[in-house]
Amino acid sequence: MTVLDTAPAVVDTTPPAAVCTVLERQRHGRPPGRDRYTISEVADCTGLSVHTLRWYERIGLMPHVDRSHTGQRRYTDRDLDWLDLVGRLRLTGMPVADMVRYARLVREGEHTLAERERLLTAHREDVRKRIAELRSTLEVLDYKIDIYGEARRRAEAAEGA
Amino acid sequence: MTVLDTAPAVVDTTPPAAVCTVLERQRHGRPPGRDRYTISEVADCTGLSVHTLRWYERIGLMPHVDRSHTGQRRYTDRDLDWLDLVGRLRLTGMPVADMVRYARLVREGEHTLAERERLLTAHREDVRKRIAELRSTLEVLDYKIDIYGEARRRAEAAEGA
DNA sequence: CGCTTGCCTGGAGTGCACTCGAACTCTCTA
DNA sequence: TAGAGAGTTCGAGTGCACTCCAGGCAAGCG
Lengths: 161, 161
What we know:
The structure is a homodimer.
Chain A: H1 22-25, H2 39-46, H3 50-58, E1 66-67, E2 73-74, H4 77-91, H5 96-108, H6 113-160
Antiparallel strand pairs in A: 1-2
Chain B binds a DNA duplex through residues 2, 6-7, 9, 38-40, 49-52, 54-55, 58, 68, 70-73, 90, 95-97.
């Protein structure tokens, strides 16, 4: 049981590096517009690992990535746009399976427009709910942190006296 | 003690398995304040499964649950309050390992107040970031849904004409 | 020429958060 | 007194989303 044997409560003052937003992830921006990016460039500018990028393709989450004459992937700006959308959907909690479904609909063309709209609309509802949840938790956190803060200040005052 | 101890077997005509938020989950409310709830009552009013409740205890996420004379769990209102907090932290994406750490700090008493405050404060920052992310995605969704809606209306108009 | 670097594939492995199964006990009702 | 039903434990299994590995190919450099 992994949780049981977790490490001895490190006092982690440092940022855990792994937690980051879509915005933070695109820290390297796109290389100037050549429209043919290698997999590692894409990994760099999306924050996804090369493994994940290949995996996305395998499971049908990418709309066919072009290849160089030696068979290496060459991503286009369109691909990056798509990855940006995928990243957002993922960060907002859409399951990969649903994103794959959406990708399939896009491949299938015009006649799936209505279903795509439904899918995104449903997800938007989901996101709205999540925002509400987060906000209500924020209140609880504010309340508790307040209590802790007060207790601490009282303790510090007592010590100082 | 035996008769008093047993639960009145709530007539649950309704429970079609849960997919839902903390708010929705507590659909059955707490049974009137007896302050000694069986595991299935707690499962019912928190939306967690009995398996999950036992698992939480095993991994140290619960502050020692009381037992009946036959060794069955008897949850108190305090336990339910704790589960409510845990549910919120979970829904806002705190890893179980962190919640276990927090639970340990609570067990350890007063001298961990400062660290608990730090932990919650860090999480609050996290939650704020997530809200911002969700909101920015909401804009993208609005935009795309708009496009789809327009396309659909155009198609419908063409068909109608 | 050999070495390094970067990429390729298919398949296996990992970590998290549950979720379930097997074998058992206890209490109540028919 | 037999059976249903709710509870117990510990360990194993599941599903998701990656993450890594072995083995191999192609290009550039000293």
